[in-house]
Amino acid sequence: MGGTRQQILAMMIEKGDGYVSGEEISRKLGLSRTAVWKHIEELRREGYQIEARQRSGYRLVFRPDRILQEEIACHLSTRSFGRVLRTLKTVDSTQKVAHQWAREGAPEGAAVIAEEQTAGRGRLGRSWHSPPGSGIWMSLILRPPIPIARAPQLTLMASVGIARALIDMTHLPVRIKWPNDLLIRDKKVCGILTELRGEQDRVHYAVLGAGINVNIDGEAWPPDLKGKVTSLSAEAGRAFRRSPLIAAMLKELEAIYEKYLEQGFSAVHKEWERLSGILGRPVKVRNASGEVSGIARGLNGDGALLLDTEEGLIPIYSAEIIEGCQSRSF
Amino acid sequence: MGGTRQQILAMMIEKGDGYVSGEEISRKLGLSRTAVWKHIEELRREGYQIEARQRSGYRLVFRPDRILQEEIACHLSTRSFGRVLRTLKTVDSTQKVAHQWAREGAPEGAAVIAEEQTAGRGRLGRSWHSPPGSGIWMSLILRPPIPIARAPQLTLMASVGIARALIDMTHLPVRIKWPNDLLIRDKKVCGILTELRGEQDRVHYAVLGAGINVNIDGEAWPPDLKGKVTSLSAEAGRAFRRSPLIAAMLKELEAIYEKYLEQGFSAVHKEWERLSGILGRPVKVRNASGEVSGIARGLNGDGALLLDTEEGLIPIYSAEIIEGCQSRSF
Questions:
Q1: Which domain covers residue B200, as residue numbers?
Q2: Greater confidence, A1 or B50?
Q3: Any idea what the CATH number is for the domain that residue A295 is in?
Q4: Which of A202, A316, B105, B302 could form a disulfide with A305 if both were Cys (CB 3.0 to 4.6 A apart)?
């Protein structure tokens, strides 16, 4: 959709249930009445229901819940995040597209969002179920001036930003599961994947991927995921429009990212612990060195998970929680 | 150059100053005498001087110091490093080619080596002077199963491997300057650049780049580099063939990489300190947090440089030495 069509859509959205006259559109945008009509037809093909009434003009009757730049732009209040945006109907992986774009010079805050991923990526090479029209599959390009050793902090930072936005927009009890998931009542609603390219002591760029299950019916999950995953709609008992959610996420991500760059990880630390669903709980983690059990106590200054074990407090830099999060409610 | 031509070249190299009969070549490789002759002509076009004598056969009179798979393969004794190899006459950056190749699935140990780079990359986005025919500009693809926080150790590991190979082949006093240079008598002879792509807790692939000044005349440097850089030939007073050097580097890199994966950074630590040119010397380092002065004491278990300062021993994870290495001889 081009800039003119976006402006026409924005004018109709602004009027709410009221009419925008064709004459006003054509005057403000310098278009002929026929050109206005052609744009309206194009919007209808995109799924918008637009009533046209003689002498009153055009009125938006129904806006489809579609991932479109125009819809997102209507809600966006960021400085740079999402201001440069690619929205796609279907893509193999938004991460892959964002990597390519970052290599070609995409600015910080550029985002790729798709209606559907045919080969969505999760952590550690796993696939990510991302059916069409029902989630937010987004990749955000960052260029933080940090050494790569600090890059895992970006995932923790993003967890806080996205959790804040989801809580604000849905009032659901979203909690963070270390290191990269968001849960509602112990079921996964969002996964975060931070990928990056860098050299020994600096990140060239990072691609922050987030997959959020928005409007997915409890029955719609593949058998292996059932009982482990959920969606915002399943938990709230109502559907959510995705564009305001995306705009809210970008807003919170931008805010916490700017704080993180100014103040370092301390800007994330306390709020992460407040939103964490595992502190004080017994967990078992597994990584390349083996398994460790203990009580999750918090994060250290670097972002490692502190486990209270029989041998004392151990910082876990990289691992997976294999027990302790699916067992009971928060 | 194809596999057949490589075999013909290898047969001639094996004979040293002796002759290989055309009949022997055609029998062993199942070629017509005309086909053998065509391959010989092709080798001559590549710069090889080949004497052809009736009844005796072919004899290699002069081998150009060229970066060719055949030349490198003759010397290679690795298990996997350099076994998959791309040699290029000219390229913008071997790092760039290797990244692309790694994304397409190049195996661990695959290497890209060029005669010339038109846009060679150094650390922190700097350019790297890499004139044609006079150096080794190489990028090696690694797929280490380590978290990205440990990736800076790859540079330290590579420093040891390359220093070993250069000392072994040239007997020159090569020393390591933390974090990523090799020096001879306080002048830079080699720079190492480790770039990687990964996610929060694992490296997808790393591209280990090394630029080695082999046969560069002291007068040939651009004015801004004069006095700061040197080459193996300038220090030894003689030229070096690059293919045996490349094979030796790949051999030492493979050996130390395998030890590193088995034993962790302790496999690198002591030898790094032994080869270091800065331990016990006063240095000043600069990074994003500012400048620190102290006596370089060694590395900690993670690979950070330990500086003995007025406030005690400080680990430096990422910085640049701005004073203390160009000041006096080792």
A1: 69-275
A2: B50
A3: 2.30.30.100
A4: A316
